[in-house]
Amino acid sequence: MNDAVRREKLRTALAWCWLAGALLLALGGCAARNGDATGANVDIVTASDEPDARKRARIRMELAVGYFEQGQTTVALDELKQVILADPTFPDAYNLRGLIYMKLNDMKQAEESFRRAVSLNSKDSNAQHNYGWLLCQQGRYDEANRAFNGAMANPLYAERAKTLMAKGLCEARAGRKDDAERSLARSYELDAANPVTGFNLANLLFQRGEYSRAQFYIRRLNNTELANAETLWLGIKVEQKLNDRVAMMQLADQLKRRFPQSREMGFYDRGAFNE
């Protein structure tokens, strides 16, 4: 594997990885994302531009990413120690270290790592995004908002739809419903296929009593294979508010057939539409 391919592979692995926490429609864990992940987060270099220390560090970094993706966090951390020994100015190493500590619920170490990554490369939108999500988990909403805005300040950042989604979720947690709606709507415009964005936008609109608008988003989601018990239940509540009994019963049949033991099925059986 040549150095250019290795650099791209590592960027892809770190391009958009963040922990979902207790979000609705849990996103699972951190994993590599496909697609264009160059993001112009680092200056464009050729293989001959990199010093030997960075090349050695990048090879070890690839191992660390692989171990992390396999859930071997302790081994990944050991590899990152070697990466940082080889090149203590390698920002990707600190970004990955932050993600690992975040997964281990060591927020102090995670924050220190993300801050170091950003200080080494202020254009690293991925590190800014991950740092923003950590701050949001701690209820530091203004700081989180600045980090998300910092991530999107890079005009070549390819993952702004996901950062807007995270920003909107964070704003909703902070009680800033108008801001949350704007962020989620902008995210939806950029990536209408993201189920987390669609669900949370529909749920926000439902809570605000905008049932027809909520119906638009939740129906689109429930008409895909990504529908689950939570999305079907929200759809049922929306249709109930709009007095569309036919649509409501169709969704209820799906819920009963596909998720008979779910909490949402229990809500439906009790008629607990306002819980």
From TrEMBL:
The keyword Lipid metabolism appears for this protein? no
Tell me which Gene3D superfamilies the record gives.
Answer: Tetratricopeptide repeat domain
Return the SUPFAM superfamilies for the record. Answer: TPR-like (SSF48452)
Question: Entry's InterPro entries?
Answer: Pilus_4_PilW, TPR-like_helical_dom_sf, TPR_rpt
Signal sequence extent: none
What stretches of residues are TPR repeats? 91-124
Q: Which UniProt keywords apply?
A: TPR repeat
Q: What is this protein called?
A: Type IV pilus biogenesis/stability protein PilW
Query: Taxonomy-wise, where does this protein's organism fall, top ranks first?
Result: Bacteria, Pseudomonadati, Pseudomonadota, Betaproteobacteria, Burkholderiales
